[in-house]
C-alpha cells in the first residue's frame, strides 16, 4: 500500500524530511491541497499564490521523474483538510501520512486536527521537524522561557547545533510506477509576466540562485546587504518561505564556502548565516507566543497605543506618494516586483508606524498582499520590530530619519531614480529630499509631514504609553 506525503510549504524532492522518510516505507503518493479561501483569509495575494502554484507544478514534474504521482485537491478552508486527507487515504488504501511541521497557529491547529482524526480511524500519521533546526520549545532560556531577544537565542542555537541536525537527506529513488495518475496542474492566478520572469519557481532555480549568491555576492554580503541599488543579498526568501530550498541546503553550502565552519570565518558568510537564524527565531516566537498569530502585539502594553485612523495617509504610503523618495521608491519596488529589499522594509515599516503613527497591522497586511516571499512569522516579526511592539523591538525612541537613511544607503540616488523616474533628472544628491519648487511640475508630492514633527508625535504617543503601563 502506498504512503501519502502531504506537501505544503516544502515544495522540493531533495532534503525533504517527510518525503525522505515516507519513501523508506515503500511507494509514495504526493498530495497538495489548495486552500484558497483560507489563503484569502490569511491575506496572501496573487504574487505569492502564483509562485506557490507554479512551485507545485514544478514539484509535480520532479516527482514524475521518480514515478511518484502528485495529486492536487481544492478544499477551501483548513477545517476541511482532515476529511479530505482521510478520504484520499481510503481511496488509495494508504496506511500512513507524512508531513513536515509548520509553526504558525492556524497551520499548527490544522495539523493537530489531522493527527487527531487519523488516530480516530487508526491510520498512522508522522509529523516531522524540517523547517527549523530545533523544534520550538527545545531552545529555552535558563528560566525555561521562550527567547524573546535574538542574540541569546542565536547563541543557544550555535551552542546546541549538532551535525545530525544539518544532515542533508537524499531525494527518494525512482519507484515502481503506480496505477495512480497525477492530477493536472492547478489553475494559477495571473500576475505580470515580469514577476514570473524575475522569480522562476522550483528547486533548480533556487539551487542556482544559492550557487550564484555564494560565488558572486556572499563575501561582500556584510557590507553590500544594506544598499538596495546593489544586488548584494541572495534573493532566496520566496524559495525559503515555500521550501523550494531548505535552510539546511543553504547552511551546508555556506559552511562549505567557509571551510566547514558555522561559527567563525568569512564575515560575509557569517552575517548571512545569522540571517537564516533570524528566520528560525521568528518561527519559534510565533509558536511560543501564539498571541502574535492572533493579531496581538508581542509587547502587550503597546495594545493601547493611540494609532491614527488616517486613510489618506495610509493610501499615500501604499501608493508611494508620501513625498519621501526612499519610502515611495521602496513601495513601488514592492508593488511592481513582489519583493522589497530588507533595509527598505525597515525604513517603510518605521515610516508607517512612527511617522504616520498608523497601526503596524495595516502594513503587515499590505506586505502580505504583495510580497512573493510573504511569510507570517518573518513578516509579523519584522513589522512588530519596526513598530517597537515586538520581540527584540527597536526601542520606541529610535526612529529612522528616512532622508538620512536614503543619503546613507542610496547615496547616489540610483535606487530612487530607478523607481521614481520623475526624480531621475535631478542631481543625485537632491533626490533624497527634493525641494518642492524643483519637482512641482513633475507631480511628485511634498512630504506628508515634516520629519521633526512626526518624530515628536510618535515619541509623545509612546511616552504616554510607557507612563500609563
Ligand atoms: P538575505 O539577506 O539573502 O538573507 C537570507 C535569508 O535569511 C532570507 O531569504 C530569509 O529567509 C532570511 N532572513 C533574512 N533577513 C531576515 C529577517 N530580518 N527576518 C527573518 N528572516 C530573515 N522575510 C520573509 O521571508 N518574508 C516576509 O514576509 C518578510 N517580511 C518582512 C517585513 C518587515 C517589515 C521586515 C523588516 C522584514 C521582513 N522579512 C521578511 C525579512 C527580510 O526582509 C527578508 O527575508 C529579506 O529581505 C529577503 O531577502 P533575501 O532573500 O535577499 O535575504
Automatic annotation (TrEMBL):
Cofactor(s) in the UniProt record: (6R)-5,10-methylene-5,6,7,8-tetrahydrofolate; FAD
Keyword terms, alphabetized: Chromophore, FAD, Flavoprotein, Lyase
One matching Pfam family: DNA_photolyase
Cofactor: record remark: Binds 1 FAD per subunit.
GO molecular-function term, one example from the UniProt record: DNA binding
The Photolyase/cryptochrome alpha/beta domain, residue ranges: 1-133
Entries under InterPro entries matching the protein: Crypto/Photolyase_FAD-like_sf (IPR036134), Crypto/Photolyase_N_sf (IPR036155), Cryptochr/Photolyase_FAD-bd (IPR005101), Cryptochrome/DNA_photolyase_1 (IPR002081), DNA_photolyase_1_CS_C (IPR018394), DNA_photolyase_N (IPR006050), Rossmann-like_a/b/a_fold (IPR014729)
Site (Electron transfer via tryptophanyl radical) location in chain: 307, 360, 383
Protein EC: 4.1.99.3
Annotated FAD binding sites: 221, 233-237, 272, 275-282, 373-375
The reaction(s) this protein catalyses: cyclobutadipyrimidine (in DNA) = 2 pyrimidine residues (in DNA)
SUPFAM superfamilies: Cryptochrome/photolyase FAD-binding domain, Cryptochrome/photolyase, N-terminal domain
GO aspect biological process, one term: response to light stimulus
Enzyme class: lyase
Function: Involved in repair of UV radiation-induced DNA damage. Catalyzes the light-dependent monomerization (300-600 nm) of cyclobutyl pyrimidine dimers (in cis-syn configuration), which are formed between adjacent bases on the same DNA strand upon exposure to ultraviolet radiation.
Family, similarity comment: Belongs to the DNA photolyase class-1 family. Belongs to the DNA photolyase family.
NCBIfam families: PRK10674.1
Name by which UniProt lists this protein: Deoxyribodipyrimidine photo-lyase
Organism, as annotated: Halomonas cupida
